[in-house]
TrEMBL record, chain A:
Membrane topology, as annotated: Multi-pass membrane protein
InterPro entries listed in its UniProt record: ABC_transp_permease (IPR001851)
Pfam families according to UniProt: BPD_transp_2
GO cellular component, one term: plasma membrane
Domain of life: Bacteria
A GO term for molecular function: transmembrane transporter activity
Keywords, sorted A to Z: Cell membrane, Membrane, Transmembrane, Transmembrane helix
Protein name: Inner-membrane translocator
Signal peptide from the UniProt entry: none
Record's subcellular location: Cell membrane
Residue ranges crossing the lipid bilayer per the database entry: 12-34, 54-72, 84-101, 107-130, 142-162, 193-212, 318-334
UniProtKB/TrEMBL annotation, chain B:
Membrane disposition: Peripheral membrane protein
Protein name: ABC transporter-related protein
Keywords of this entry: ATP-binding, Cell membrane, Membrane, Nucleotide-binding, Repeat, Sugar transport, Translocase, Transport
Species per Swiss-Prot/TrEMBL record: Chlorobium phaeobacteroides (strain BS1)
CDD domains: ABC_Carb_Monos_I (cd03216), ABC_Carb_Monos_II (cd03215)
Gene Ontology CC entries for this record: plasma membrane
């Protein structure tokens, strides 16, 4: 009981102390931190549009967070979220462009979503296979795959897909576009928040059920905690490593639907802007628990957009400092409480 | 000779609410072998850690040779002449014996040449005086376990320790190495040194010690001259009730052959031959014991039986269960044949210590249909089954708080594993490796009973154990494994006869395993 309370308080304490430290940075720029925080709050949760922006960002981060959290249950560190999102984004955009324009929405959206997930999954699965077959450390292979995917996507965009003299592809067909919350139920005015959010929340729930309620999750946790015992229990760790990587990659691929199908409706260079990496932090702060990831992603979504809103007064990098300090605090605190 | 060298009074040590040692008063006389016995968790190791300066007592006082001391680190204890041989040796494998012994006591300045020759001479002279012979120039990695232990003792004597603490020193030794160690201890005592012997083997206490203290639940419940106590006395003091030291073993009725290993050889990944034309049979309803010093092929045999041989190794010959060859089978397939395995290293291989009790009770059996519903578990049937095993195997823990397995005592953990494996549906073969290692006497009694019960349900049982008395009291037949093959097999009649003169039988077995 006391331990759970401590665990719950750790992230909170980390965030508060990070905000205090960054207040010092803000003071160093000659501004009043309370002023800045107040401005930031009124332009984020304080406004309809701001809230929508946060929801939009949170959605991507939930999914890239899951991409790290699920493999982490079998003690694999998937650093390749960024590459997996990119692969998904390219796949979603390409399919969305190629589909015949009279495809019914449900079909078009499903096909684009599935190809995005498969693309992300394939990249992660390759790293998993390298691990199982040649014992290549997944940290190294996923990082390297980031570079490879980046280069490949860049090449495809520049030489084959881009609309001439732009850095983006043509628009995907109308029916493959995910509806915005604004246009359907009229909330979060003009913000890019779209129905992918529901997919993200469902994924969290699904991941939680899988991890804690199914036989597969039971075996995954066993492999993560005590791989040798798992083998004695007749569990094949290799199969689970592949499954976990494939699922994680699929989550990262799914994150791209938020960007491509929901927001931009095309792929453009720099669209993913590091959400794959922030996903690592999201998962870390949530102790890789799929449900806590929602809260953790919300925090990072808030800091991400909040930094932008006050960029005119203080450099938004200060809020990257907040993110970094939060993570460091969590790491230090969890080590100490052990 | 009989003055007190270590005196503890009112020593307590608590960890939070829990007292590992409570109000301990103990005098240890100079020039004696003083045994401290007790079950796991009785507080023996806490007590030795306090004497050795690894733990500070919460209250109470400790005096060494008449001086009150308050150690804050082992360094001070070492300076006071106390030395300790830990259960797990603290030697550096790729240094020589002399280098290991000198380590930390090299003398001279940082860049001064090491005086190894001189040290080696001193080591040899100490060694000869106490029957601790070991080549000072050989690498530790080339030594046997018994020799490594001698190096540990030499290390202490080299530093002029006159109080030696030995923590479970015989756990890794063969019977002949054990008697050799005891001769050394006796010679050290005769020279006036004090030996503190931590053990849970009561026979050894009676064999070698002068005084014995029994610990239970953090307290010293009795300190007596060894000559004045018997084995049942000690067991009763330890557990707090009378204990059946020897399980009742009614005659067995062996049936058809279940396991048959013939001409079985095994070459490991590095090309070393680990098993050489090994052969044995186990019938339904009998317990086949395998006696042997660790490292003579037992682990390899177990890995073949459980489908866990490393890739790159090679199996020749055959091992069959009910006529089916195990050579190419996976663990999952083997278990599905009705085979259970209780591995030697419980925490590493048999349980997930972060999992709850019920998650552990189905571990390895979690795919059984009765436990599953859709893609998940049938919570109710898992819960009911957990309750059944807990009742039947008398597993004790705080059920309300649903703690992780690591919160349970070793004995209760082992009972969970035992229950899970014995109750496997349609069990035909039960493989037991060191089933009572690290388990207290009370739990041993019950585990032995359950093993006999399983045998009488016509299950074939393979028992691999380093405790000869366990093998003798349970097994129908005993095979002695040496360098990867069964060197000699004791028949059922020989075992039956040997139970009445156990010491002789142990000696005889000892001859075939070394």
């Amino acid at each position: 009981m006391r331990n759970t309370l401590l665990k719950l308080l750790t992230p909170l304490f980390a965030v508060v102390s990070a905000l205090i430290v960054s207040a010092l940075f803000i003071m160093a720029t000659g501004r009043n931190p309370l002023d800045i925080y107040q401005k930031m709050f009124s332009m984020t949760f304080g406004s309809d549009y701001g809230t929508g922006q946060i929801v939009f960002r949170t959605t991507s981060l939930i999914l890239t967070g899951l991409a790290v959290a699920i493999p982490f249950k079998v003690k694999l560190f998937n650093i390749g979220g960024e590459g997996q999102v990119l692969a998904g984004a390219l796949a979603a955009a390409t399919t969305g462009i190629l589909l015949p324009s009279q495809t019914p929405p449900l079909v078009a959206i499903s096909i684009c979503t599935l190809t995005a997930m498969m693309a992300g999954s394939a990249v992660a699965l390759f790293a998993g296979w390298l691990k199982v077959r040649f014992s290549v450390n997944e940290v190294i292979s996923t990082i390297m795959l980031n570079f490879i995917v980046q280069a490949f996507v860049g090449y495809m965009l520049t030489w084959h897909l881009a609309v001439p003299s732009t850095v983006h592809t043509p628009e995907i067909i109308q029916s493959a576009q995910l509806p915005m919350f604004d246009s359907v139920i009229g909330i979060w005015n003009k913000s890019p928040a779209n129905f992918s959010t529901l997919l993200a929340l469902a994924s969290c729930l699904g991941a939680w059920v899988m991890m804690f309620k199914t036989t597969a999750g039971y075996e995954m946790r066993a492999v993560g905690l005590q791989p040798e015992a798992a083998e004695y229990g007749g569990i094949n760790p290799n199969k689970l490593i592949l499954k976990a990587m494939a699922t994680g990659g699929a989550m990262a691929g799914l994150a791209s639907t938020n960007l491509v199908l929901g927001y931009k409706h095309f792929y453009e260079a720099g669209l993913t802007s590091g959400i794959g990496f922030t996903g690592i932090a999201v998962a870390l702060l949530a102790f890789s628990n799929p449900l806590w990831i929602i809260a953790s992603a919300l925090l990072f979504g808030f800091l991400d957009y909040g930094g932008l809103t006050v960029n005119a007064y203080v450099p938004k990098d200060i809020f990257m400092v907040v993110q970094a300090i939060t993570i460091l605090m969590v790491l230090v605190l969890t080590k100490k409480s052990r | 000779m009989n003055d007190v060298v270590i005196s503890l009074s009112g020593i307590s040590r608590s960890f939070g609410e829990f007292y590992a040692n409570r109000d301990i008063a103990l005098d240890i006389r100079s020039g004696s072998i003083h045994a401290i016995v007790g079950e796991n968790g009785a507080g023996k190791s806490t007590l030795t850690k306090i004497i050795y300066g690894l733990l500070a007592p919460s209250s109470g006082s400790l005096s060494i040779k008449g001086n009150a001391v308050r150690f804050t680190s082992p360094r001070q204890a070492i300076e006071a002449g106390i030395g300790m041989v830990h259960q797990h040796f603290m030697l550096i494998e790729n240094l020589t014996v002399t280098e290991n012994i000198m380590l930390g006591d090299e003398g001279g300045s940082f860049f001064a040449p090491l005086k190894t020759k001189e040290a080696a001479r001193k080591i040899v002279s100490i060694a000869q005086a106490h029957g601790l012979d070991v080549d000072p120039d050989s690498l530790v990695s080339d030594l046997s376990v018994g020799e490594e232990q001698r190096v540990e003792i030499l290390k202490l004597l080299y530093r002029d320790a006159d109080i030696l603490i030995l923590d479970e020193p015989t756990a890794v030794l063969t019977p002949s190495e054990t008697s050799r160690l005891f001769a050394t201890l006796a010679s050290l005592r005769d020279e006036g040194k004090t030996v503190i012997l931590i053990t849970h083997k009561l026979d050894e206490v009676l064999d070698v010690s002068d005084m014995v203290s029994v610990m239970s639940k953090g307290k010293v419940v009795a300190t007596k001259p060894t000559a004045a106590v018997t084995k049942p006395d000690l067991a009763r003091l330890m557990v707090g009730r009378s204990v059946l030291l020897r399980v009742e073993n009614p005659p067995d009725r062996p049936g058809e052959v279940i396991v048959k290993a013939s001409d079985l050889s095994f070459v490991d990944r590095k090309g070393r031959k680990r098993l050489t034309s090994l052969g044995f049979e186990i019938r339904a309803g009998e317990i086949y014991g395998i006696a042997g010093v660790e490292g003579n092929g037992q682990s390899e045999l177990l890995s073949i039986l459980w489908g866990m041989t490393e890739p790159g190794s090679r199996i020749d010959g055959s091992i069959t269960v009910n006529g089916l060859s195990l050579n190419e089978m996976s663990t999952k397939e083997i278990a599905a044949m009705g085979i259970s395995h209780i591995p030697e290293n419980r925490l590493r291989h048999a349980v997930i210590k972060e999992f709850s009790v019920s998650d552990n009770i189905i571990f390895g059996r979690h795919r059984e249909r009765s436990f599953s519903r859709f893609a998940g578990f049938n919570t109710k049937s898992v819960h009911d089954y957990t309750k059944k095993i807990i009742d039947r195997y008398d597993i004790r823990y705080d059920m309300q708080s649903n703690p992780p397995l690591s919160a349970l005592s070793g004995g209760n953990q082992q009972k969970i594993v035992l229950g899970r494996e014995i109750e496997r549906p349609e069990l035909k073969l039960l493989i037991l490796a060191q089933p009572t290692r690290g388990v207290d006497i009370g739990a041993i009694e019950m585990i032995h009973k359950k093993i006999i019960e399983a045998r009488d349900k016509n299950i074939a049982i393979l028992l691999i154990s380093s405790e000869l008395d366990e093998l003798i009291s349970l097994s129908s037949r005993i095979g002695c494994i040496y360098k990867g093959s069964i060197r000699h097999e004791f028949s059922a009649a020989e075992i039956l006869k040997g139970r009445s003169s156990e010491q002789d039988l142990e000696k005889e077995i000892g001859m075939f395993i070394t």
